[in-house]
Amino acid sequence: MTRAHTLTERLEAIHGLLADKMPGLARIAVVLYDPQTEMLHTLAHSSGKDDPLSHYSVPLKSVPSLKAMVDNGTPRVVDDIPASYASASEHSRRIIGHGYRSSYTERMTHRGQVLGFVFFNGFEPGMFSGRTLPVVECAARLVALTVGEDLDASRILTGAIVALGKVARVRDPETGAHLQRMSRFSREIAFGVAGRWRLDDEFIEKLYLYAPLHDIGKLAMPDAILLKPGPLDEREWQIMCQHPARGCEIVQIMMENASVPIPKAEILLNIIRHHHEHFDGTGYPDRLAGTRIPAEARIVAIADSFDALTTRRPYKDPWSNRDALDWIRAEAGRHFDPQGVAALADALPQVEAIQASFQDPDVSA
């Protein structure tokens, strides 16, 4: 099997290897588990463009059989999905609606941690038994290894850069909670625009992983500018506007010295370079406008600004979510992408849950 460029392509390659032994195999899908929020998020699949569970997230507690698997690791085999899930949840109804009749699910682990789950679906009842079980068990381990290696490659880079940021944290007024929130806000916005902007789940996951690194270039800024309590003068502002380019330089150096390729590194570089571009073309560094600004940068700009407005900073008190959303709406079409702003507004319940889970250290529970 030749090395594929994306996780989806690698899943499709594994699916192809199983085709001769399991011609009724309809789908392999991967869902990631976020232990901090106890949410499941779709990541990739091999079922073609029309997948029943793309851009989907659900609390783990709402799927008791999967919650049990986090603890005991025992695979789940369903021989007849419609019969087993007569009063089906939304995700079960979607699976049944696509004609899937049987399933095999296995917990994915990597380096001692639960990554999520891999699902195999068949068009025929009772597909995952007898001679097919050893085959699908082996394939599940291969998928887990593939997903783990893909995430490792991304996390090696992000971990190194986050560590660098922590070393310099005394120079950086942003908190770790801010980065947790804005990365998750970015994911919720991306879910909202995914259909119109044709974003797949693998893109959205990389957006979530890379969003916290958006301002890494500030590490190269002089303390006198980065920590200045008052407004910057013209010369200082020109220097500050160099931080997106400096951030890309930092990442390029780290990638050149990385032992493995970084998956979808262009997403990371686009976020760093272009998250200060404005929808009307008045931003920096390249004065891009509209959809010439990469989708990932348009999304991160909204998420980052919303969190900055709704949290306490040395120079301001926190705004309410409603006031912050009203201001961002007023800037739609000028500063921000209007569709991304609408997606943020639609995701307000999820945003509030994220805020409750990731509070700044000086905020009491």
Description:
The chain has 365 residues and is α+β, with helices and mostly antiparallel strands. It has two domains: 7-150, GAF domain (Beta-Lactamase, 2-Layer Sandwich); 168-357, Hypothetical protein af1432, CATH 1.10.3210.10. Helices cover 50% and strands 12% of the residues. The chain has helices at 7-18, 64-72, 81-84, 90-97, 132-167, 176-197, 201-210, 223-226, 234-240, 243-256, 265-274, 295-310, 321-330, 338-346, 348-357, and strands at 25-34, 39-45, 57-59, 76-78, 102-110, 113-122. β5 (102-110) and β6 (113-122) form a beta hairpin. α1 (7-18) runs antiparallel to α5, α6 crosses α12 (295-310) and α11 (265-274) crosses α12. The chain starts with 6 loop residues before the first helix and ends in an 8-residue tail after the last helix.
What is the beta-strand fraction? 5-15%
- CATH fold topology of the largest domain: Hypothetical protein af1432
Backbone CA Rg? 22 Å
**How would the global form be characterised?**
elongated
Order of secondary-structure elements = HEEEHEHHEEHHHHHHHHHHH
Number of strands: 6
* Strand line-up in the sheet with most strands: 3-2-1-6-5-4
How many helices?
Answer: 15
Overall tally of structural domains: 2
Distance between the termini: 51 Å
CATH class call of the largest domain: Mainly Alpha
Low-confidence stretches: none
| CATH structural architecture of the largest domain | Orthogonal Bundle
Mean pLDDT: 87
Find the structural class using helix and strand composition.
alpha+beta
Describe the largest sheet: 6 strands, antiparallel
Give the helix level as a range of percent.
40-55%
CATH superfamily of the largest domain: Hypothetical protein af1432
